[in-house]
Amino acid sequence: MHTVKLYGHFLIVYMRSQLEYRFSFFGDVFVNMLTFVSLYLGFWVLFQTFPSMDGWGFWEVLFLNNLNLMTYATCSMFLWGPMIQLENMVRSGEFDNFLVRPYPPLLILVFRQFGHTFIGHLIVSSCVLALCTYQLSIQWTVGNALFLLFCLIGGILIQGAIMIATASSAFWVVRSKAVLEMSIYTVRSFINYPISIYVQSIQLLLTFLIPYAIVNYYPASLFFGKGEQSALFYFFPVISVAVGALLFILACRVFSRGVARYDSSGS
Amino acid sequence: MRLYGQIMLNAVQSGTTYRFHTFITTANRLVALLVQFFLWTALYAGASALSVPITQVSLDEMITYAVFSTMISMIVANENIETLSQKIQTGNIVTYLIRPIGLFRSLLFETLGTKAFAALFEIIPILVVGYLFFSPAELPLSNLLGFLIALFNGFMVYFLLTFLVGMSSFWYLRIFHLSFVLTHLINFFSGIVIPIWFFPKALYAVTSWLPFDLIYYHPLAILLGKADVSQTLFAFAKGAAWIAVLAAASAIAWMAAKRKVVVQGG
Questions:
Q1: Where are the domains of chain B?
Q2: Would the CB atoms of B198 and A42 count as touching at under 8 Å?
C-alpha cells in the first residue's frame, strides 16, 4: 500500500513536469501512435492482394498484433524509460544514487519516471480492439473476457520480465542498450505475424526460450478456436499468468544479482 | 581532395572501433530478413492454396526484393539526424563554421567513409547469407547500371531528407518527433518491405507524388526488371527533381540557421 502511495506521488510530480510543455507532451503521444498506424496500414495493403496469412485473416492478424501492443505498451509505461537508460547510469556511475535510498533500487529506478509516450500505443490498441470486436463480430461473454484479461496480465509480465532481464545485462556487459533493443524490437518483431509461418525451431525458441508466443500467438489462436486443443482454453490463462509471474520474479533476481555485482564506475 | 579522403578515412577508423555495434546491426537486419522470408513464403502459400493468382511478382522475386532491400537499407543509412541534433543542441555546430569545407559536404563524406567499412562487414555478409539460405531469383546483369543510378538517387534523397530533419533542430527541440514521422513515412511509402505494386490505386497515386519510393522501390523495381524503359526514365527524372528540390531546401535551411547561431564569448 505504501508503495502504491509513493508511486502515486512520483507520478503526479512527473506528470506536472511533463505537462509544463503541453505541445511536446501531446506530440510525444501522437508520434508514438504512428508506429502502429504504419504497421497496420501495411497489413491492410498486404491483405488487398493476398487472401490469408497462414489461415489468418486481416482482422485476426490485427487482433494478434494488438495483444502484443497492449501488453508491450502497458509494461513499457513503467519499464521502458528506466531500462533503456540503465546502460548510461551504470557506465557513468549515476546508478550510485539508487543504492543510497531507503528503498529497493529497481523500484526507485522505475518510480522515478513514467512513459507517457505509451499512452499513444494504448489509445491505438483500444480503438483497434473495438474495431476487431465489430469486424469479427466477437461476442463478449464472462468466459472469453476473463480469458483475455488473464492472458493480457500474463503477457504484460512476460514482456516486463524480458525487458528487465535483458536490460540487467548492463551490469555485465558495457553495451546493454543494444542487447535490450535487440530483444524488444528485433526479436519481438517475430510475433508481428502468426508464428506458425516459421520453421519449427523458431517456434520452439519463441515458446520456451524467449516466450513471446505466449503473449499473443497462443492466446489469439485459442480465442479464435484455431487448432483442436480447445480444452486448453481454460488452462491457458493460468499457464500464461504462471509463466509470466515466474519469469518476472526470475528477472528481478537477475537484476538484484547485477546490483550486487555493481561496483560503481570508479573515478 | 585529400581533405575529403581524410574525412572518409576517419569514419572508417571509427567504424572499426564500434565492432559490437556493427555486429548487432547486422544481426538485427538478418533477423528482419528472416522474418520477411517466412512472411512472403506464407503469403504466397496462402494465395496458391486458394488459387488466387499473384500476377505482379513471383515468390522467388519477392525474396530477392527483400534481400536487396536489406542491402539498400545499409547503403543509405546515415547518422545525420543524431549528429546534427546533438551538435546543434550542444552548440558544437559552430566548429563547422570555421572549417574550410561546408557542413553538408563534411557530413556527406563522413557517411561515405562509413560505407567503405559497411561494405565489408555489413553488406557483403547480408548478400552471402541471402544467397546461401534464401536462394533468390537470377538477376539479369543488364539492369545493373539502371539500378546503380536509381540507388544513387535514393541515397541522395534519403541523405537530404535526414539532413533537413537534423537541421530542424535549430527551431524544434524534440527532434525525435520529426525523425519518427520520417521513419514511419519511409516504412510505409518507400517500399522497404511492401513493394508499391501491391498498393491499391489511390495509395499508388499518393505514393508517386512523394519522394520516399525513390529510396527502395524504384531501384529494386529496376533491378528485378519490373520497370520498363519509360518507367525507368520516369524514376530517374523524379529522382533528379526531388534531389534538386530537397537540396535547395537544405541550402535555405542552412542559410537561415547561420543567422540563428549566436556565438558567445571568444
A1: 2-260
A2: no
pTM: 0.89
> Are A193 and B41 within 8 A, CB to CB?
no
The domain locations on chain A are: 2-261
Which of A29, A37, A46, A49 to mutate against chain B (most B CBs within 10 Å)?
Answer: A49
Residue A53, beta-bridge partner list? A56
Report the residue from A27, A38, A190 with minimal CB separation from B174: A27
Closest CB from A32, A38, A189 relative to B32: A189
Residue type (1 letter), A218: Y
Q: What digits encode the pLDDT tens for the residues B209-262?
A: 999 999 999 999 999 988 889 999 999 999 999 999 999 999 999 989 888 877
Q: Test A34 with B184 for CB contact under 8 angstroms.
A: yes
Residues A75/A188, Cβ–Cβ less than 8 Å:
no
Give B16-57 pLDDT, tens digit per residue: 666 777 788 888 989 999 999 999 999 999 998 888 888 888
Dist CA B198 CA A37 (whole Å):
18
Q: Do B27 and A186 touch (CB under 8 A)?
A: yes
Kindly provide the ipTM of the predicted complex, given to two decimals: 0.89
Say what angle helices B19-49 and B2-17 make with each other, to 10 degrees. Answer: 80
Interface test with B, best of A41, A45, A116 (most B CBs within 10 A): A45
Distance (Å) from the C-alpha of residue B2 to the closest C-alpha of chain A?
35
* DSSP labels, B128-182: HHHHHHH-PPP--GGGHHHHHHHHHHHHHHHHHHHHHHHHGGGT-S-HHHHHHHH
Say if residue A267's pLDDT is above 70: no
Q: What is the dihedral of CA B144, B145, B148, B154, to 10 degrees?
A: -110
Among B33, B172, B177, which would you mutate to test the A interface (most chain A Cβ atoms within 10 Å of its Cβ)? Answer: B177
CA distance B185 to B199: 15
Is residue B77 within 8 A of residue B126, CB to CB? The reply is: no
Q: Does residue A206 contact residue A213 with C-beta atoms inside 8 Å?
A: yes
Q: Output helix, strand, coil percentages for chain A, rounded to the nearest 5.
A: 80, 0, 20
Q: Select from B79, B258, B264, B82 the least CA-distant residue to B170.
A: B258
Distance from CA of B16 to the nearest CA of A (A): 16
Distance from C-alpha of A70 to C-alpha of A155, rounded to nearest angstrom: 9
Residue A7: closest CA among A119, A122, A84, A114: A114
A193 and B35 in contact by Cβ < 8 A? yes
